[in-house]
Specification:
With about 775 residues, the chain is mostly beta strands. The protein has a single domain, classed as Maltoporin, Chain A. It is built from eight helices and 38 strands. It has a 22-stranded antiparallel barrel. Strands 2-8-9-6-7 form a five-stranded mixed β-sheet. Strands 1-28-29 form a three-stranded antiparallel β-sheet. A hairpin with a 2-residue loop joins strand 4 and strand 5. The longest helix has 9 residues. It is globular. The N and C termini lie far apart (about 55 Å). The N terminus is likely disordered.
Length: about 775
């Protein structure tokens, strides 16, 4: 059995007609964030897949002037940008609805040294971003006790365009951010939990909305060179065109990495954006283009390293890798009037991915190996509109937001077996049309100057048509709908402190193929039960945020989240299986301290208890079938641990410096040891990494900086799994090829740690100038 990937969310349904948007828009206006915040009322201010699995049976925080809690503003060595916090890209900000909600400025985000664009998201407290493969593949994400694989249960948006891909060849919710140019980020809004009516699919654990800048004060030219063949060129400038601004940014990148088989990354990235006005009265049109080609050193089994078969940076299959491209066009309009505000956006994205992986080596094919090719080619389009009405009810300030969201994906999918990227056999090929419509409403009432409540409801309808080109029995139509009530309450401020309560229902969708598949694509004789299209989640959270201590913004949140089932998608087998229900509970403690204008300190801690619920009788049968072969049986006992669910995440950092002169940053990131199998027989080692930056900014706009990644050259792993595989040097390999070992044992292989190491000490020198 090859490694399985967890798969939640997605949306479907017909695209909403633009004329309906116009009709809705004429009746009101929508806030830029649609979070129920009383934007026009006196604001409350507080001072201050890949996860491989075992074989299963078939079947601003600032001292000085008070800012709304959860908002960060920070001066950093990022490219010079306009200081308009209400730009079309960023969106108007209201007071936060939960203690765990916050906004991180683009300046703060770019003040952090990171190895790859996706790691910029680690500015969200408790979120870990890693990579287990080449530099063109989506990152792995961890949040609130979830191994989110490549994006499941974490909804990511850039300029209101969804990043997550549903019914994707490499895993549900696949969220590739390698095309993001960090210097173009204006702000990042972070929300957690299913308590916000405008957040639907992929948002059970949380959502991240990234806004882009509209213009720069000066042009930027930047070059970076570093260890292991790292090269990056960046250019960015804007000009006044008519009543608006035209922004152009371009990026070239190359990287080999420390691997014995160089990554040979070749990346090209571009952005063109025209905007007028502000978040509440403005318009923007954005075009993006991205292409990347790379080799991959995927995770390797620990036994191959300890035996000397492979070097730590070696590869079992040096032909792994891929290529991808993405082209996007989006538009956004917002307007305010006497009744409130409204906003609408529409987008179209054309993307393609061809990915070659070999996770199990010689388990399925003892001669040619287990490499497989996943192909995903799609056109997705969507449009959203929301209207916010600000008024009063019985003399009480009130705000009501209603919204409509739609999306449609036309997808071509293929899965084949390959050897050295050459075609061998077909596994499955499908055409999928998947659409969704979501409607939501939120009503916020300020009962007193210290109490406000928000009641919301969301309804989602999904429909998909799957045409299986090789097996008509796996074709079909499927649809489903769910309603999700939401509630939030804020008490305070009392002595510069606010208290928050949130509860709500949410959902995630599953791969449409899993909802129509009745026969195993690799073995049609094996019958499968279709997975549900939509899965319910339930969550609750209490929290407090305070700025009693001048300059310190501190918050604590305690949460619980239940899911009716966790779905696993096997990208290399083309089928989906539903696992048991799960429960996660824990807390997050977030701190941001700025005692002086030139000192910025943050420290965050997140702890989570994550377990499956119920007994896994299917796994008990698998465990029994492997008796007599301990190398296959270990780690296959039934249990309630959720593989790769981190019990603790911590981070801390200090940044020093003003706008000119010397500046520096030191950051620490910690990911605790985690269970890798449901019986906890295998556990990963903890990962503790320090990154640093030292630089100088001249008053003429020139800057030089040195980033040092993995400052102490820690010998650790980006990510670790435990699952069965076969190498030609395994004793079991000979037993299986000779027909001696039982079939169940040979299908499982040797259980072992499988890991992808952290890159060693790395230097990257950047020189930048403005013009």
């Amino acid at each position: 059995m090859r490694p399985r990937q967890p798969e939640p969310g997605r949306r479907r349904g017909p695209l909403t007609v633009l004329s309906a948007f116009v009709l809705l828009a004429d009746h009101g206006n929508a806030s830029a964030q649609s979070d129920g915040a009383l934007r026009e009322l006196p604001p409350v201010q507080v001072a201050g897949g890949e996860t491989p699995h075992r074989k299963k049976s078939p079947a601003s925080r600032r001292a000085g002037r008070p800012l709304p809690a959860g908002h960060r503003i920070f001066v950093s060595p990022a490219a010079a940008q306009t200081s308009d916090a209400r730009s079309v890209a960023s969106g108007a900000k209201g007071p936060p609805g939960m203690a765990s909600e916050l906004t991180v400025s683009g300046e703060e985000l770019n003040a952090r040294p990171f190895a790859r664009p996706g790691e910029a998201l680690e500015a969200a407290p408790g979120l870990i971003v890693t990579q287990h493969s080449g530099e063109g593949k989506a990152n792995q994400y961890f949040l609130r006790g979830y191994n989110l694989d490549h994006g499941t249960d974490l909804a990511i948006y850039v300029d209101d365009v969804p990043v997550n891909m549903r019914t994707h060849a490499h895993g549900q919710g696949y969220a590739d951010l390698n095309w993001l140019i960090p210097e173009t980020v204006r702000a990042m809004d972070v929300r957690k939990g299913p308590y916000f009516a405008d957040a639907g699919d992929f948002a059970s654990a949380g959502s991240v909305h990234i806004g882009l800048i509209d213009r720069t004060e000066k042009g930027l030219a930047q070059v970076t060179a570093g260890s292991f063949g790292y090269r990056r060129l960046l250019g960015m400038d804007s000009a006044k065109v008519g009543d608006g601004a035209l922004l152009v940014a371009g990026e070239l990148g190359a990287y080999n990495g420390p691997w014995d088989n160089p990554d040979n990354v070749r990346k090209l990235n571009g952005l063109v954006r025209y905007s007028q006005g502000t978040a509440t009265d403005g318009v923007s049109v954005t075009g993006m283009a991205y292409a990347n080609r790379w080799n991959s050193t995927d995770q390797v089994p620990q036994r191959a390293l300890t035996s000397g078969l492979l070097d730590r940076f070696g590869s079992e299959d040096p032909t792994d890798g891929g290529n991808t491209n993405r082209f996007a066009l989006s538009g956004r309009v917002a307007q305010s009037d006497d009744l409130g505000s409204w906003k609408a956006n529409a987008y179209a994205v054309k993307s393609q991915l061809d990915l070659y992986n070999n996770f199990t080596y010689y388990l399925a094919d003892p001669v040619l190996g287990d490499q497989f090719h996943q192909h995903d080619d799609r056109l997705l389009a969507g449009a959203n509109i929301s209207r916010t009405l600000t008024g009063s009810f019985a003399g009480l300030p009130m705000q009501t937001t209603v919204g409509l969201q739609s999306r449609y994906d036309a997808i071509d999918l293929a899965l084949t077996n390959t050897v050295q990227r050459s075609f061998r056999t077909n596994v499955r090929s499908d055409k999928v049309g998947e659409g969704s419509v979501g409607v939501y409403a939120e009503n916020t009432v300020r009962w007193t100057d210290w109490l406000r409540t928000t009641i919301g409801w969301r309804g989602d309808y999904y429909a998909a048509d799957v045409t299986s080109l090789f097996n008509a029995n796996n074709s079909g139509h499927v649809d489903a709908s769910l309603g999700s009530p939401k509630f939030r309450m804020v008490l305070g401020p009392f002595n510069q402190t606010e208290f928050f309560l949130g509860a709500g229902y949410g959902m995630h969708s599953n791969d449409a193929r899993g909802a129509t598949t009745t026969e195993d694509p690799s073995d049609p004789a094996t019958k499968l039960s279709p997975a549900p299209l939509l899965v319910r989640t339930r969550g609750a959270e209490i929290g407090v945020r305070s700025r009693i201590i001048p300059g310190l913004d501190s918050s604590v949140s305690v949460f619980i989240l239940d899911q009716d089932s966790e779905i696993l998608f096997s990208g290399d087998a083309g089928d989906t299986s539903a696992t048991r229900a799960s429960r996660r509970y824990g807390f997050e403690w977030t701190n941001h301290y700025r005692p002086r204008s030139w000192i910025d300190i943050d420290a965050d801690l997140a702890m989570t208890h994550a377990r499956f619920r119920g007994y896994d009788s299917d796994q008990a049968e698998v465990y029994a079938s492997l008796a007599g072969y301990p190398e296959a049986q270990i780690g296959n006992a039934p249990g309630n641990y959720i593989p790769n669910a981190p019990p603790m995440v911590a981070s801390a950092g200090i940044t020093l410096g003003e706008r000119t002169g010397w500046f520096g940053t030191l950051r620490w990131r910690y990911l605790a040891a985690s269970p890798l199998t449901e019986d906890n027989a295998f556990r990963s080692s903890a990962t503790s990494i320090f990154n640093g930056r030292l630089g100088y900014r001249a008053d003429n706009g020139w800057r030089v900086q040195l980033d040092v990644l993995n400052l102490f050259n820690t010998r650790s792993n980006q990510i670790t799994y435990a699952y069965g595989s076969l190498l030609k040097t395994d004793t079991l390999y000979n037993l299986c090829t000779s027909g001696t070992a039982p079939t169940a044992v040979c299908q499982n292989g040797v259980m072992d740690y499988v890991l992808h190491p952290v890159e060693p000490l790395t230097f990257r020198l950047t020189m930048a100038g403005t013009f």
